[in-house]
Give the backbone structure.
Amino acid sequence: MSGIALDSALIAVPVLMLAWANGANDVCKGVATLLGSGAASGRHALLWGAFWTVAGGLTAVFWGAALVSTFSNGFLSSGFPVTTTFIVSALGGAVAWVLLATRLGWPVSTTHALLGGIVGAALVVAGPGGLRGAAIANKALFPLLLSPLIAIVLCWCLLWLGRLVARRVPAWHPGCCEHEAWRRNPFVCQQPGKPGTATAQRVWTALHWLSAGGTSFARGLNDVPKIAAFLLLALASGVSGQTNPQNAAFVIAMVTVVMGVGGVWGGRRVLGVLAHRVTALDPGRSLVANMGTSILVMLASPLGLPVSTTHVSTGSLLGIRWADRAGPTEGDALRSILFAWLVTLPVAGGVAALTTLSIALF
């Protein structure tokens, strides 16, 4: 095996590990409302999310070039020595943190973790001069910090629309049916035989599932290029600075499939947190949360802005929670989620820096 092939193989391992970890932590974020509102079981929700994540990831073959460019060279200064050590260390910081957070059931941002890994490894390799500070601030930190705030405001605005739609949905009242049955299907409280009931029920159910699929599609479209960029960068470094379209398509497809598998096999812990421990969800609120998330992430992807689906989706849920003036409940996960957000970048950066130093010693 040639040196170039060996380096590419060494980098492919952490790339695919990060794809799996991303799937385990992120796939559920598009479909948590299906479980939280009782519209689907956890297994069916994850399968639906994985399917649309894969569809979005494969679309990135044609629509993800801007994000690939941002994460492959947009944050590094001209002439930065992109070595196998640097790439493996940056990925290692992100992988370690996302896997730990997934084990703890914390919904964290893979985008944030990748940024931390890049910064931590680059500082050890070349010091502050190895980074483009303005690019990091404008193309990463600013979108990452602003996106959840926009999601909160957007969901406040969408909530009134959702409530208009919800007026056509029968409200639950004691004696009409079991409350859990109403959460799964609010039309069980409708008077039998009332005109339009069956059609309204089908439309409502379809909108909820489609909105969850749209959110998952947007997430795959935005996340796959960020992870694939590292392996594409390694291939480009070894082949006269260029990667042919066939290689790029293969790498993106490989990352996409592994991400989907990770979501199905490892996504239950974070799914339960977002579905039950952020805010109470019913069909109307679920639809609003999914609409807010998918709109923002879909708009950001072709612009090359690496927004965090984690921050956007959780921000959407918080927007609904605060619009309803709902206070903390038993088992509330808001504090742990905010803590995880705050420490993601420094922890991933610290692990990446230590990994770089450790490899240099050996």
User: Anything to note?
Assistant: The chain has a mean pLDDT of 79. The CA atoms of residues 148 and 314 lie 7 Å apart.
